Each structure stands twice: as C-alpha cells, then as structure tokens.
From TrEMBL:
Species, as recorded: Oceanomicrobium pacificus
GO biological process: monoatomic ion transmembrane transport
Cross-referenced SUPFAM superfamilies: Voltage-gated potassium channels (SSF81324)
The protein's name: Two pore domain potassium channel family protein
The UniProt record lists the keyword Ligase: no
Domain spans labelled Potassium channel: 76-146
InterPro entries associated with the record: K_chnl_dom (IPR013099)
Membrane-crossing segments per the record: 12-39, 59-85, 121-142
Keyword Membrane assigned: yes
Superkingdom assignment: Bacteria
Keywords tagged on the record: Ion channel, Ion transport, Membrane, Transmembrane, Transmembrane helix, Transport
C-alpha cells in the first residue's frame, strides 16, 4: 500500500495549487480576450469582402474561419495548462500532460490519467476554466454570426 502524504504537505500543495491554478486561469482569460478582440477585428476587415459577394458562401467561409479561430484559442489554452503541468513536474512526458490537459479542459474527464495527491485541485480549476472558455466563445461566435448576418441581410444580399 502506498504511503499517504503528510497532511501539512498536502495543505501547502493545495494552497499552491489554488494560487498557481488561479493565476493560469487568469492568464487564459487574457488569452481568450485577445483572441476575441482579434476575431472582432477580422470580422470588421472581412465584412467588406463578404458584402461584395452576391452569395452566402462568403458569409459561411467567414463563419468557418471564426470557428477555426475559436478552436485554435482553445488549443492554446490547453497547451498553457500542459506546460504548467510539465513545469511542476507532474508529468514526465509532454504528450501525457497535453492529453490530460485536453481531457480536463474540455471537462471530458476520462479518469485514466490523474494528478498526484495535493495537486488534484488544479485539475478542477482547469475544468472550470475550460467550461467558462467554451461558454465565452460560444457567446462570441453567436455575436459574430449575428453581426455578419445583420450586415449581410441589411445590404439585400442573396444567400445562394
């Protein structure tokens, strides 16, 4: 049977996990905000291109670009968490850290890879961060598509 960690050490690790996890979550919120700002800028620049066309294909292309952009943002956030796990020596293999991070960030949580005692709380913080990120970017995507469609419809363009 494996020896349990000293309760005082576990308390120290929990405090560290809360602090470090909170700071990384804040960093990821900053990353998400930058990606959202760039997405709105891209929309502003591409709006003329969409309006010049007479079909909805350009609208759909721009919407697809926004979806890929959001997916890239989520991937960046997952990599930040994986890098943290490697920095804390919680994993010896980056692929395993990245896998754990992706499964945790998306709140899939297979449970086949776990953090060691004292650091488990950080996985919950990552899951909350991922859940909020997906909600945030869902709202951003809906707003981007709403704006594109409003501008497209107001200019009397045909969809196809």
């Amino acid at each position: 049977m494996e020896d349990a960690l000293d309760p005082d050490l576990v308390n120290v690790l929990l405090r560290q996990a809360l602090l470090i996890g909170g700071l990384v979550a804040i960093l990821n919120v900053g990353i998400m905000s930058i990606f959202a700002s760039v997405a709105f800028r891209i929309l502003g620049i591409a709006q003329d291109w969409v309006e010049r066309g007479s079909t909805g294909v350009r609208f759909l292309v721009l919407a697809a670009v926004c979806v890929v952009w959001v997916q890239f943002a989520a991937t960046c956030c997952v990599w930040v968490w994986a890098a943290l796990y490697m920095h804390l020596d919680l994993f010896t293999d980056f692929e395993e850290a990245l896998y754990f991070s992706a499964v945790t960030f998306t709140t899939l949580g297979y449970g086949d890879v776990l953090l060691e005692e004292g650091w488990r709380l950080i996985a919950g913080i990552e899951a909350m961060n991922g859940l909020l990120m997906f909600g945030f970017f869902t709202a951003i995507l809906i707003e981007l598509i709403r704006r594109m469609r409003r501008n497209f419809d107001s200019n009397k363009h045909h969809w196809f």
